[in-house]
Write a structure and sequence with these properties.
The chain is an all-alpha fold. Helix content is 54%, strand content 0%. It is globular and about 35 Å long.
């Protein structure tokens, strides 16, 4: 993953938007979300993990917090 002060936050926003796109109408995580609150949650998740954790895993934990109902499998209706 590229490094820099803005790269992880931009990647996270894109990841959340991609999750929304993939989930369709089930739930929109990015509709009206508070970026400051999102980054505070990410900081908390990172601090709760022992050692270094890939940012992707932190992003998945964030989605589990924000959308526990659909976070494990977010498939289109009728696909399962």
């Amino acid at each position: 993953m590229p490094t820099g002060t803005r790269i992880p936050s931009a990647w996270l926003i894109g990841f959340l938007e991609g999750y929304d796109w993939g989930c369709g109408e089930k739930k929109r995580l990015t509709d009206g979300f508070d970026l400051h609150a999102i980054f505070e949650r990410v900081d908390r998740i990172c601090k709760s993990r022992a050692g270094e954790t890939p940012f992707f895993m932190v992003a998945l934990d964030l989605i589990k917090e924000l959308d526990p109902e659909h976070s494990e499998v977010c498939a289109p209706p009728g696909s399962g």
